[in-house]
Design goal:
Layout (H helix, E strand, L loop, with lengths): L9 H7 L10 E3 L6 E3 L9 E2 L2 E2 L14
Antiparallel strand pairs: 1-2, 3-4
Length: 67
């Protein structure tokens, strides 16, 4: 098996990785509450997905003030 004769520099290594970045997913609006959310995910605020309730969202209790 062939081996490299010299070490590739960090700059040369990083140049080849310039296209490895993450893409931002497309956002859509929830049909129930109108909150912006990632496509193909249940709404984090109301729990609906494609017009049906997929997740039951339990409201959080307010934190007690520090005494």
């Amino acid at each position: 098996m062939a081996l490299p004769k010299r070490k590739h520099s960090k700059a040369r290594r990083d140049k080849s990785r310039t296209h490895w970045k993450l893409k931002i997913g497309s956002l859509s609006k929830c049909s129930q509450c109108g909150v912006a959310l990632i496509s193909h995910r249940a709404c984090p605020s109301c729990g609906y997905y494609r017009g049906r309730q997929a997740v039951v969202i339990v409201p959080r209790k307010p934190a007690k003030p520090a005494a």
